[in-house]
């Protein structure tokens, strides 16, 4: 079986479960609750894992992190929880719903998202406060929203978003639809949206690094598969997948 | 104040084609069975139903003309209508109901209310000025409806079955009052009714309508004496036949002949009053020229009279006293002989 | 006559049906933290959401009355080709999933929408993310209730009163305002009440079209949804408020539902 790391922040990679020669192949359905910003990357990870362990099926639920926490607290049938920040993960831990300690498996950074071609000529955070620019962000309880406010504070920019969306994907879709001019999301979100949006980088001095922890939940009945998947995510292969989507390695 | 209306239209299953003229000073009643088209005619004159052909002129002013396509909308016609169900606005007080026509035509509300109270006094329901129509009796509602129609000083007053919704006791009293108000009204008056008693009591001239056409027009006496349709005949309670007269004999449809006095020839109506028909147990002898056998089909006791319907050569109604019935030992189904004199057959050109 | 006895099977099924509705409502009442309730109700965010909801729902009802009554009148009184089709389209929001309604509103009135695009390029006016947007979303889903109710009232009224009014010299506007409207007042009030209650509870179209911001577009239903994640007790209290409002509307309209209208 895989040894579970006890450190709150683990930066190394561990060998995948398969190479340790587990006696029986992993199987079952894995119910995965992951932050919205992990939508595309985790689907890829799941597909990859499924190729190695064809008997493991995935059921995905991607929402804003606080929404997932609320659902888990209400007893939703989740096996693995991947959060977009440590604060939400702590909540789940203090509720006694986590089995074991969470592992940080990736980092992310913020980026300004705008319409393709950047028609309003946004060059940085200070332009978000320009009159005539409609700026939206995720709500203050969503990690991305919290970080966005932090970044703006760091840059000394005073601007009120016109809407507080429930997750980053909603922010992206409103930019895509043309309803808003600019939003603050993760670099991975900008990358995932491809040619449907354009991005404006935020300098490191103003930027915020997001820590993504992952944990198995007590409600799971398939600990083996859960731990197997988590090990995969933190393995070299898994990290490579995450990096290809724009995440920074753990 | 005259109304001249030539109204031709088709509505639902009704085909209406009438020529009506009401001169000044004459109260006219439109009398006829249900479905005759009376109410439709009223609505056409009021402008609520469009004319197919014809025109409506009031005091020389054209209200509607199918040819020139002139059309004065209802609200601009100087008319007042008393409806069969009164149609008092349930959400307004009695006083406001009466004032409605005045305020609608631009009068200030204070003046309108004063005039309304005036009219309520005149019809005798001033005490109910602040009540809602639902709280009034039938007779009171009728008076309010009349006041409401008259308050605007219309030039043409139309009354649709004004007494029909009242019970018998209220009807007599209200009829008296209505006659009084109609007499004092300076304008053209047209009443619609199916009740001949109402028509005779209220109107100077009757116009009888049947199936969309006018069949007869005249004073009540003229109509009763010379009915021109079975409807009127039944109303008046006489025996009516139509046939070819030729020197004292009238050949009725079906081939039967009546002996009649008079030199009239051609297409005629023949009327025999039930009173003139005598009943016998055996074939009578004597001067009466019309005698035949028949069977008593129906016997009706009305007050101190008995009306006996006899089926024979021609169907007839005879009127006798109940005592006579007993003497003759006459019951429904009895064989009986009838007789009446030729001089009792009144004939006039059809 | 002997009172009818309930057959067992029907009784059990009916009881289950009733329980299906009663248990959740009882659950809401029982689980609400009553001691905390006052504090939650007077918290600034709650007051803000409540104030905004009242402003938006009453505005939506006012618009529905202004536009809906004439529309109902046209449906009830005028025959024209395509009437049933038009009526079906304007009734659609009643059965359409509210989110779909929100999307449709975006495509029409959003910044790149059919009308919204023109508004933006000509006047610089954008509707999403404004209180007007929330009002429009609520009007869209709630107005059909008013139109349907008023139309039914107009169809069932005795039109002879209108004829009587015309013979008394009333022009069409006077007939409408002094006779028709008072006579259909019960339908009008019921329609407005239903419309207001629906507008108050609107969520899907609002969050999709107008967005979510406290004091601007975060109406009570949105606040309840979001509070569930961060402050469940507060969301219970707000839910109870909305529940009481709905019960109030239903009670005031009970005579219509029970058929004595």
What can you tell me about this protein's structure?
- The complex is a heterotrimer of chains A (250), B (350) and C (261).
- Chain A has 250 residues and is an alpha/beta fold.
- Chain A has helices at residues 39-52, 65-73, 86-94, 143-154, 168-177, 187-193, 223-234, 236-244; strands at 28-35, 56-63, 80-82, 98-114, 135-138, 164-165, 182-186, 198-201, 209-217, 248-249.
- Chain B has 350 residues and is α+β, with helices and mostly antiparallel strands.
- Chain B has helices at 38-46, 94-104, 109-123, 138-150, 168-184, 196-202, 220-225, 230-236, 322-328, and strands at residues 3-11, 14-22, 27-31, 53-58, 61-65, 70-71, 79-82, 156-160, 188-193, 205-210, 213-218, 239-246, 249-252, 257-259, 266-272, 278-280, 290-302, 305-311, 316-320, 335-340, 345-349.
- Chain C has 14 helices and no strands.
- Chain C has helices spanning 8-31, 34-42, 44-77, 83-91, 98-109, 116-123, 131-156, 160-167, 172-183, 185-200, 204-210, 220-230, 232-252, 254-257.
- Chains A and C meet through helix 2 and strand 6 of A and helix 12 of C.
Strand content of chain A: 15-25%
Figure out the total of helices of chain C: 14
Order of helices and strands of chain A: EHEHEHEEHEHEHEEHHE
The greatest inter-chain interface is formed by: A-C, 20 and 21 residues
Which segments of chain C are poorly predicted (pLDDT under 50) over 5 or more consecutive residues? none
Largest sheet of chain A: 10 strands, mixed
- Proportion of β residues of chain C? under 5%
Unreliable stretches of chain A (pLDDT < 50, length at least 5) are 1-19
CATH-defined topology of chain C: MetI-like fold
Number of domains of chain A: 2
- Share of residues in helices of chain A: 25-40%
Oligomer: heterotrimer
State the CATH architecture of chain C.
Answer: Orthogonal Bundle
* Terminal CA distance of chain C: 27 Å
The CATH superfamily of chain C is known as MetI-like
Under the CATH scheme, which class of chain C?
Mainly Alpha
DSSP helix fraction of chain C = over 70%
What do the pLDDT scores of chain A average to?
Answer: 88
Radius of gyration of chain C from CA coordinates: 22 Å
Query: What gyration radius of chain A follows from the Cα positions, in whole Å?
Result: 18 Å
């Amino acid at each position: 079986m895989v040894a579970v790391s006890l450190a709150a922040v683990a930066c190394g990679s561990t060998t995948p479960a398969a190479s340790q020669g587990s006696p029986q192949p992993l199987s079952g359905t894995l119910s995965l609750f992951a932050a919205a910003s992990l939508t595309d990357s985790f689907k890829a990870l799941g597909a990859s894992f499924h190729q190695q362990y064809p008997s493991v099926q995935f059921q995905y639920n991607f929402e804003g992190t606080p929404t997932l926490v609320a659902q888990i607290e209400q007893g939703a049938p989740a096996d693995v929880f991947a959060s977009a920040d440590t604060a939400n993960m702590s909540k789940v831990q203090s509720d006694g719903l986590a089995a074991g300690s969470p592992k940080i498996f990736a980092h992310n950074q913020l980026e300004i998202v705008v319409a393709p071609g950047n028609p309003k000529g946004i060059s940085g955070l200070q332009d978000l406060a320009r009159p005539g620019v409609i700026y939206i962000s995720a709500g203050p309880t969503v990690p991305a929203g919290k970080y966005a406010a932090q970044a703006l504070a760091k840059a000394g920019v005073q601007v009120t978003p016109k809407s507080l969306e429930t997750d980053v994907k909603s922010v992206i879709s409103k930019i895509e639809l043309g309803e808003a001019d600019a939003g603050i999301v993760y670099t991975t979100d900008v990358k995932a949206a491809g040619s449907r949006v354009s991005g404006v980088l935020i300098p490191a001095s103003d930027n915020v690094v997001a820590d993504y922890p992952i944990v198995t939940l007590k409600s799971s009945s398939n600990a083996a598969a859960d731990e197997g998947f988590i090990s995969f995510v933190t393995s070299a292969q898994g990290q490579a997948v995450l990096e290809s989507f724009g995440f920074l390695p753990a | 104040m005259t109304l001249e209306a030539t109204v031709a239209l088709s509505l639902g299953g009704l085909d209406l084609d009438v020529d009506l003229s009401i001169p000044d000073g004459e109260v006219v009643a439109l009398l006829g069975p249900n479905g005759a088209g009376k109410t439709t005619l009223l609505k056409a004159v009021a402008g609520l139903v469009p004319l197919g052909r014809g025109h409506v002129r009031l005091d020389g002013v054209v209200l509607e003309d199918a040819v020139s396509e002139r059309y004065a909308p209802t609200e601009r016609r100087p008319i007042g209508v008393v409806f069969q169900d009164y149609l008092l606005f349930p959400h307004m007080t009695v006083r406001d109901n009466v004032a409605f026509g005045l305020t609608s035509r631009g009068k200030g509300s204070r003046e309108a209310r004063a005039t309304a109270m005036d009219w309520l006094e005149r019809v005798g329901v001033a005490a109910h000025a602040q009540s809602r129509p639902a709280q009034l009796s039938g007779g009171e509602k009728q008076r309010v409806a009349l006041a409401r129609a008259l308050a605007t000083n219309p030039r043409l007053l139309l009354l649709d079955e004004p007494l029909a919704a009242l019970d018998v006791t209220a009807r007599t009293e209200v009829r008296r009052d209505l006659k009084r108000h109609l007499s004092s009204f300076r304008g053209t008056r047209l009443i619609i009714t199916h009740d001949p008693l109402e028509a005779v009591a209220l109107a100077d001239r009757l116009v009888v309508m049947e199936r969309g056409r006018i069949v007869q027009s005249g004073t009540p006496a003229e109509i009763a004496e010379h009915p021109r349709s079975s409807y009127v005949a039944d109303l008046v309670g006489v025996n009516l036949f139509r046939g070819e007269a030729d020197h004292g004999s009238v050949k009725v449809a079906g081939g039967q002949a009546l002996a009649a006095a008079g030199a009239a020839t051609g297409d005629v109506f023949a009327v025999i009053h039930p009173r003139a028909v005598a009943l016998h147990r055996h074939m009578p002898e004597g001067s009466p020229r019309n005698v035949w056998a028949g069977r008593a089909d129906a016997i009706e006791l009305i007050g101190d009279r008995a009306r006996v319907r006899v089926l024979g050569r021609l169907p007839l109604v005879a009127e006798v006293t109940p005592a006579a019935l007993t003497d003759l030992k006459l019951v429904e189904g009895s064989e009986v002989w009838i007789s009446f004199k030729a001089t009792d057959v009144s004939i006039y050109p059809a | 006559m002997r009172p009818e006895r309930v057959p067992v099977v029907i009784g059990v099924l009916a009881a289950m049906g009733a329980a299906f509705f009663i248990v959740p409502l009882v659950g809401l009442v029982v689980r609400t933290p009553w001691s905390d309730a006052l504090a939650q109700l007077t918290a600034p965010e709650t007051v803000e959401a409540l104030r905004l909801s009242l402003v938006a729902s009453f505005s939506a009802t006012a618009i529905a009355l202004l536009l809906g009554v004439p529309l109902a009148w046209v449906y009830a009184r005028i025959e024209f080709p395509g009437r049933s089709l038009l009526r079906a389209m304007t009734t659609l929001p009643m059965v359409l999933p509210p989110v779909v309604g929100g999307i449709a509103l975006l495509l029409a009135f959003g910044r790149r929408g059919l009308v919204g695009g023109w508004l933006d390029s000509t006047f610089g006016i954008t509707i999403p993310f404004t209180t007007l947007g929330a009002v429009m979303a609520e009007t869209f889903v709630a107005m059909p209730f008013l139109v349907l109710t008023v139309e039914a009232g107009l169809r069932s009224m005795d039109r002879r009163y209108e004829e009587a009014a015309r013979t008394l010299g009333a022009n069409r506007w006077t007939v409408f305002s002094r006779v028709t409207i008072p006579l259909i007042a019960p339908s009008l009030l019921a329609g407005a009440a239903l419309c207001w209650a629906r507008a108050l509870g609107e969520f899907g179209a609002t969050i999709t079209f107008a967005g979510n911001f406290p004091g601007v577009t975060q109406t009570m239903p949105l606040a309840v949804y979001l509070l569930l994640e961060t402050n469940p007790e507060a969301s219970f209290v707000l839910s109870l408020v909305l529940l009481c409002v709905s019960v109030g509307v239903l009670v005031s309209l009970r005579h219509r539902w029970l058929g004595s209208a």
